[in-house]
Amino acid sequence: MDVEEVLKLADDLVFAKTGKHLNHLQEGILRGTWQRQKYPEIAKTCHRSEPHVKKVAAKLWKLLSETLGEDINQSNFAYTVERWQFSNTGNNCVQIGKISCDPSHYLKGSLSTVLDNDPLNRKTSNTEPKIHLDLSDAPEPNLFYNRTSELTTLKQWILENRTRLIAIYGLSGIGKTALTLQLIPQIQQEFDCIIYRSLRNSPPLQTLQTNLIQFLCMGDAPVPAPAEERTIARGFPLLEYLRSHRCLLILDDLQTIFTPQQLAGNYRSGYENYSTFFKQLTESSHNSSLILLSWEKPREIAALEGENRPCKSLQLNGLGPEAQEIFKEKGLAEPDRWLELIDLYRGNPLWLNIIATAIQDLFGGSVSEFLSYKPLFLGDIESLLQQHFEILTESEQQVLSWLASTPAPADISKITENLQLSPPEILKVMQSLGRKSLVETVKQNDRSHFSIEPAVIEYLKLQQI
Ligand SMILES: Nc1ncnc2c1ncn2[C@@H]1O[C@H](COP(=O)(O)OP(=O)(O)O)[C@@H](O)[C@H]1O
Ligand SMILES: [Mg+2]
């Protein structure tokens, strides 16, 4: 969908509601927002003051929200429009917010070039290539800051290196889902089909495959013949679809199919075929990509990944100084102490949001007052960390407790000296804790030393009381 189509769509919606067309400034706001510009830039382009642009924009978002029956604002506008575009119900009817209608009537044909009944949108049609997008399982995108380098890396892996399997892993709340949703609009034009699914209910692979194939078959994607299925996809018919169309598949919450109380990335009984599927998907030849989002790095990734290989992993760390925007948005005081706060909570955006709310609730926004209280406050972060600790092995817990009680980062030999675990056991545990993002590594005299972050130390202390 290009910007003119977006403007036409918005104009149709506003006209249907008010009987008036968009004025020049309203168009400028939508055009800028679609191009991911912020208000100062839009104000400059439209030759108006920023406060005036913001005032007009606030009214416009309100109007669009009322028209569509869902909350529209500057940060979700582009995403919501993209969602409208793909919410084709399959019977020449388009679902726009709460409105379901025949696009040729309601949109006066503005969408007729981008909607049809062919979800896989075979390029035989003389309309522009279209994408079959299903983000119905994904959360609504929210405010999003930075992550420029991660987005650049992911785009390079997918578009230039044609990486087939990417694992993004990190603690809950670190921003894996948000990052991936942000990536989609930036690469979607390269794909025939984009599907997001959460594995939160731990579907067996067979169920997931059936669900995805049903979706892909809504058009007339070729259904592989059984014999072909067996020989080409060796039991994974989904691979056949990923081969015949360029698809981007995102599987979130992969940790739900790992065995609790075992070292990282160990599949639950009955789910081991996921590992075989990922391996085949990486090794066979096709142009599709699969992104896995998980608390833990899946085990087979280590064997498959490499600089020149079609499998890569990205350990997602917290936000840097840009996370100050979260505190600005929450109206915290004393910006000169914000970086300290970001460092203490390692830039985890979910934790920073939780802490910012606590600082407002308890100290009226005063960061210095909050920081003067020791020990480090966890509040609702405690229950988030609990979920990570519940699934640790005893040896992992033992190592973390020892690291929490040690003031300086320790190397492997120091850990081995101090714990009743065999050296091979320690090595396995340290690797697993790294794959679960629960230890930090620093280089001292060219040797890796391990430590744990302040919130995890505080969590462990609370458990010992
Ligand atoms: N770059 C970011 N800027 C601002 N907020 C973010 C960013 N990344 C994530 N968040 C917010 O942090 C919270 C957790 O992010 P999410 O992507 O759900 O984490 P994860 O998938 O790793 O558990 C969400 O409320 C999300 O909106
Ligand atoms: Mg997530």
Describe this structure in words.
By secondary structure, the protein is an alpha/beta fold. The protein folds into four domains: 113 residues, no CATH class; 168 residues, 3-Layer(aba) Sandwich (Rossmann fold), CATH 3.40.50; 53 residues, no CATH class; 81 residues, Arc Repressor Mutant, subunit A. It has 22 helices and ten strands. Strands 3-5-6-7-4-8 form a six-stranded parallel sheet, with helices on both faces. Helix 1 crosses helix 2 and helix 20 crosses helix 21. It is globular. The termini are far apart. The structure holds adenosine-5'-diphosphate and magnesium ion.
Features:
465 residues; alpha/beta; Rossmann fold; 4 domains; six-stranded parallel sheet; globular; binds adenosine-5'-diphosphate; binds magnesium ion
Summarize the structure.
The chain has 22 helices and 10 strands.
Question: Remind me, CATH topology of the largest domain?
Answer: Rossmann fold
Largest sheet: 6 strands, parallel
The helix/strand class is alpha/beta
Radius of gyration: 25 Å
Strand share of the residues? Answer: 5-15%
Query: What number of domains?
Result: 4
- Give the distance, in angstroms, between the N- and C-terminal Cα atoms: 57 Å
Bound heterogens, unique: adenosine-5'-diphosphate, magnesium ion
Q: What's the β-strand tally?
A: 10
**CATH homology-level superfamily of the largest domain:** P-loop containing nucleotide triphosphate hydrolases
Q: Strand order of the main beta sheet, please?
A: 3-5-6-7-4-8
- Second-tier CATH architecture of the largest domain: 3-Layer(aba) Sandwich
